[in-house]
Amino acid sequence: MKDGDPQETVSVLKDGLFKGKGAVVSGAGTGIGRGIVTRLVGLGMDVTGLGRREEPLAETAEAVKEMPGSFRYQSCNVRDIEALEAAIEEAGETHGIDLLVNNAGGQFFAPATEISRRGWDAVIDLNLSAIFTATKAAYPYLKSRRGAVVNMSLSGVERGSMGLAHSIAARSGVLGMTRSLALEWAGDGIRLNCLGPGTVVTSGLSDEAARALLDGLLAATPMHCETSVEEVAELTAFLASPAGRLMTGQLIQIDGGAHIGAGLHMIGAA
Ligand SMILES: CCCCC/C=C/C(=O)SCCNC(=O)CCNC(=O)[C@H](O)C(C)(C)COP(=O)(O)OP(=O)(O)OC[C@H]1O[C@@H](n2cnc3c(N)ncnc32)[C@H](O)[C@@H]1OP(=O)(O)O
Ligand SMILES: NC(=O)C1=CN([C@@H]2O[C@H](COP(=O)(O)OP(=O)(O)OC[C@H]3O[C@@H](n4cnc5c(N)ncnc54)[C@H](OP(=O)(O)O)[C@@H]3O)[C@@H](O)[C@H]2O)C=CC1
Description:
The protein is α/β, with parallel strands linked by helices. The chain has a single domain (19-254), classed as NAD(P)-binding Rossmann-like Domain (Rossmann fold). Helices cover 43% and strands 14% of the residues. The protein contains eight helices and seven strands. It has helices at 6-10, 31-42, 54-64, 81-95, 117-145, 165-184, 208-219, 229-240; strands spanning 22-26, 46-51, 70-75, 99-102, 148-152, 191-197, 250-254. A seven-stranded parallel beta sheet has the order 3-2-1-4-5-6-7, with helices on both faces. The chain is globular, with a radius of gyration of 17 Å. The protein binds ligand LGGBLMCM and NADPH dihydro-nicotinamide-adenine-dinucleotide phosphate (NDP).
């Protein structure tokens, strides 16, 4: 990436593009989620952010308070079905939903033989079932605005990954669900896509084990570079914009070619 303000460097969308539009972003207090909120509010959108911890959500609110759109947040565990449905409904009634970004997610790295059934269920709940719940709850609001859904996935999701059997299973499920709903809801004008970022250095990838992987991840990326939060945010906004009008049912990998190169999927194969 060139020097300068990272968002400015990758910004291609028009100021005021999303004035009067509404969005829900999960995992809005940190990393990629905060970056997406910042771009959407910067483009004039009214955004509700979800996450379990209030403190990072409040930090996101502080970061965007002078921007053209607005940001409200709600503490919500997306694995709690009733709480998630209620949060989506409240956001829909407050500002409408032109865009739903299912970004909250994560997992632990472990070989399949070390994943307990509870560990499996926790990852499937967070990365698959919660996305179904949120998307279904948002349907009436999306329909009335002919809105869009962006589901955060992983680079290489289609070819499997060492140490991530649970997460790849969940995210492959999300891809199948995304394509199925893209078909079911096309007549309503609702579009759904998945984004597969490569390596994004956020707090989620900052523990010792993840840092140890970083050099290997970058070496396995043909362009030998990280994906920036701002690049993911700009692409998310693009997919919700009129320029994305015919894009639906896709997995778009924003990963410096990782999914066609050596890839991130063999990292951890010792
Ligand atoms: C393709 C390569 C690039 C990949 C790049 C990806 C990057 C990112 O995703 S960045 C975001 C990273 N952030 C996170 O991953 C944080 C989110 N993760 C979690 O919250 C947890 O991992 C969770 C999904 C398991 C949910 O946690 P929670 O509900 O609190 O679960 P528990 O701690 O109660 O554990 C439930 C169950 O899971 C077992 N477990 C947890 N960690 C591990 C581990 N490291 N190894 C093996 N098993 C683990 C835990 O032991 C529990 O099972 P039981 O012991 O059977 O009760
Ligand atoms: N960083 C990377 O290299 C890549 C990341 N991704 C994916 O992008 C997404 C964002 O990752 P990133 O920003 O890097 O990581 P972070 O760990 O910073 O973000 C994860 C966010 O999800 C929220 N979250 C987690 N569990 C729950 C829950 N049960 N209910 C509500 N919110 C929850 C967290 O907030 P809180 O803890 O407060 O609930 C946090 O804000 C994830 O789905 C991740 O797997 C994909 C490819 C690469």
